């Protein structure tokens, strides 16, 4: 086995051999070490191009853009759904770009709660991003149920990860009607075994949903055995702040009445007949609510051009190599006050790494002062995302070297937890 090369020269050699290295030139980056793409990806020339095209269409076509745009705006959500579907391993009719992530959780969870007779039991986990739990609880309350009585919450043994065995056991012992889990835990970066959970849910007769916010665009998926999913597009898909979100509904649920009906989910053929009776589209498009927001949707088109060109399998492979390299450098250069909170097994790791330290908030502030952009997640995580389309191995090497110097010199002690210098 070749010894691990922790030198900067070794990082340079890795970059020179990287088949995806050229994609970084298509992203607008300053001199910062930008390692926060799991919160917001940077602007690419491709996303800028499609946004400018839609602006030009608005200027030149006005309202005719709905029919004469290229592609027409009227079916733009469905067009983007067709583009997204290969990343999910499903058919285009099952995917649509629409709404915002939390809105999609509300409408899909609400939709499936309405199909359940009696008092529903819903399974979530204690480490999911808060908005998911907020929405699930709200949907239960709106139907007259006490969330404290109707929720099964899978707990974590270590505060970092969720054991799939515990999920399967909960499904087998609690008569669960619906589950909503993340594909990747936002704090630790653990990748859940979506296929295993979906199979267990199907065996238990449980409606199965996933939040893919921290996996779409960096992890390939096969959702063919999943009932529904939601995601944002401003992280690894790099579609911009507040960009249009997306949703997936398995075709076996087409025809189910959406919980939050809106005119943009009406069947397209008669949408402008302005009938008082709602006729949902016979695709995932039925879960669109309001008019597609073209200026927050257009950058996704160009961003997907890059993903398609690079290939999701190649993106995943480089992501795994980058995160493995980051973990090895942490082991090599940082002392025992640091720990890696992300699973080291490749199959259990998403696209970011959780570096744990008792002074993580101060460390993040000190890194920011040196133009190394990461984020802090309470109570003790510096979250680092070497996004594979625009991050190189030298970037990762320089980040760890900067973090090591900050820690060894005690420079972080100058920062209050809120980031101010004392």
Automatic annotation (TrEMBL):
Record-linked InterPro entries: Kynureninase, PyrdxlP-dep_Trfase, PyrdxlP-dep_Trfase_major, PyrdxlP-dep_Trfase_small
Cofactor(s) the protein requires to work: pyridoxal 5'-phosphate
EC number: 3.7.1.3
SUPFAM superfamilies: PLP-dependent transferases (SSF53383)
UniProt xrefs under Pfam families: KYNU_C (PF22580)
Keyword Hydrolase: yes
Domain of life: Archaea
Pathway: Cofactor biosynthesis; NAD(+) biosynthesis; quinolinate from L-kynurenine: step 2/3; Amino-acid degradation; L-kynurenine degradation; L-alanine and anthranilate from L-kynurenine: step 1/1
GO terms of biological process kind: anthranilate metabolic process; L-tryptophan catabolic process to kynurenine; NAD+ biosynthetic process
Reactions it catalyzes: L-kynurenine + H2O = anthranilate + L-alanine + H(+); 3-hydroxy-L-kynurenine + H2O = 3-hydroxyanthranilate + L-alanine + H(+)
GO function term, MF aspect, one: kynureninase activity
A GO CC term attached to the entry: cytoplasm
Keywords from the UniProt entry: Hydrolase, Pyridine nucleotide biosynthesis, Pyridoxal phosphate
Subunit structure: Homodimer.
Its biological purpose: Catalyzes the cleavage of L-kynurenine (L-Kyn) and L-3-hydroxykynurenine (L-3OHKyn) into anthranilic acid (AA) and 3-hydroxyanthranilic acid (3-OHAA), respectively.
HAMAP family: Kynureninase (MF_01970)
UniProt family annotation: Belongs to the kynureninase family.
Protein's recorded name: Kynureninase
Native source species: Halococcus dombrowskii
Source species taxonomy: Archaea, Methanobacteriati, Methanobacteriota, Stenosarchaea group, Halobacteria
């Amino acid at each position: 086995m070749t010894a691990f090369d922790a030198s900067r020269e070794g990082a340079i050699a890795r970059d020179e051999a990287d088949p995806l290295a050229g994609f970084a030139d298509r992203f607008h980056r300053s001199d910062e070490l930008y390692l926060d793409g799991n919160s917001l990806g940077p602007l690419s020339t491709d996303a800028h191009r499609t946004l400018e095209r839609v602006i030009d269409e608005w200027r030149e076509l006005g309202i005719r853009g709905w029919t004469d745009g290229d592609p027409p705006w009227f079916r733009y959500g469905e067009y983007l759904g067709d583009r997204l579907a290969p990343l999910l391993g499903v058919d285009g009719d099952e995917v649509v770009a629409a709404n915002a992530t939390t809105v999609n959780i509300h409408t899909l969870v609400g939709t499936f709660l309405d199909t359940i007779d009696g008092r529903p039991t819903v399974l979530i986990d204690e480490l999911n991003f808060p908005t998911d739990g907020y929405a699930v609880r709200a949907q239960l309350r709106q139907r007259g149920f006490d969330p404290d009585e109707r929720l099964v919450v899978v707990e974590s043994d270590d505060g970092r990860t969720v054991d799939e065995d515990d999920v399967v056991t909960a499904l087998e012992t609690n008569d669960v009607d619906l589950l909503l889990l993340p594909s990747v835990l936002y704090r630790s970066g653990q990748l859940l075994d979506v296929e295993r959970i979906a199979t267990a849910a199907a065996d238990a007769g449980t409606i199965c949903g996933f939040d893919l916010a921290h996996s779409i665009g960096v992890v390939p998926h096969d959702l063919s055995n999943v009932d529904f999913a939601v995601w944002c597009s401003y992280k690894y898909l790099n579609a911009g702040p507040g960009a249009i979100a997306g949703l997936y509904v398995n075709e076996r649920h087409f025809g189910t009445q959406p919980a939050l009906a809106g005119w943009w989910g009406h069947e397209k053929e008669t949408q402008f007949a302005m009938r008082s009776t709602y006729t949902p589209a016979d695709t995932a498009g039925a879960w669109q609510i309001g008019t597609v927001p073209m200026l927050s949707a257009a950058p996704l088109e160009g961003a997907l051009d890059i993903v398609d060109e690079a290939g999701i399998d190649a993106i995943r492979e480089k992501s795994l190599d980058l995160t493995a390299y980051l973990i090895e450098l942490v082991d090599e250069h940082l002392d025992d006050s640091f720990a890696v909170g992300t699973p080291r097994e490749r199959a259990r790791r998403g696209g970011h790494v959780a570096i744990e330290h008792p002074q993580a908030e101060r460390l993040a502030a000190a890194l920011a002062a040196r133009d190394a952009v990461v984020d802090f997640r309470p109570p003790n995580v510096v979250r680092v995302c070497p996004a594979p389309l625009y991050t190189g191995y030298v970037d990762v090497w320089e980040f760890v070297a900067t973090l090591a110097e900050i820690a060894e010199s005690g420079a972080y002690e100058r920062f209050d937890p809120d980031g101010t210098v004392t």
